[in-house]
Amino acid sequence: MSGKLYVVGTPIGNLGDFSPRAVETLESVDFIAAEDTRVTLKLLNHFGIKKEMVSYFEHNKNERGDVIISRLANGETCAICTDAGMPAISDPGEDLVKLCHENGIAVESVPGPTAFATALAISGMNTRKFTFEGFLSANKKERREELEELANEKRTMVFYEAPHKLTQTLKDMYEVFGERDIALVKEITKVHENVVRTDLKTASTMFDEEKPKGEFVVIVDGKKFEEKEISFDKAVEEAKRLMADGMSTNAAAKEVAKITSFKKNDIYKALL
What we know:
Elements: E1 4-8, H1 20-28, E2 31-34, H2 37-46, E3 53-55, H3 61-73, E4 77-81, H4 93-102, E5 106-110, H5 115-123, E6 130-135, H6 140-149, E7 156-161, H7 163-177, E8 181-186, E9 194-199, H8 200-203, E10 216-220, H9 232-244, H10 249-259, H11 264-271
Parallel strand pairs: 1-4, 1-5, 2-3, 2-4, 6-7
Antiparallel strand pairs: 7-10, 8-9, 8-10
């Protein structure tokens, strides 16, 4: 009988967020597949857990994945952990999960914090509809192409970015997206958790003098309807679509008024 892979979410900054079930899982499995065994060892030591670990990361995932699958197929159990957050989200763990499904090996979730969802929740940005884009390419040309593909995206966009790339990424975003509202979130769940609400023009020069530290979640407002692109009838249609998605008449009128030149009361009356 084959074993099971447990996908275990780990704290993204505050060890107090590690669930009792996650602790029990790490204590009970046969071995742990860790993105960085040094980081996971600190977590294990904090909770008094002693367990065999194998490294599993981007540059060894192909060969190590086969080894892990073989052990699981022989009945062992494994927990996969990333350095912070949920494995398999912008993470090579997705390949191991896929291998398990392809080989008929059970996969079970032991959920924990996820940086993009937590950042979005405290950002004050529109969360009704959003798209998670993860990390943009480190190559300037490819990054620019990725952003251009998103130029007309109307949903809120969520990105991860490393500090050494953040300044150039923000400049590229401003060049491609133009003026947009943005939230920069860092140190999530830590003592110095911080949310900066600003606009892309300001953000594009924010770190010219003082270099950013730590990884950021970058949340960018989606494209707004331009006045010339939408008539009053189209605005009412958009409000009706929002209502069909569950929004109240008043809230739908208010939302469409934000992104058009029309008054909320006029839209509201047309919806009655």
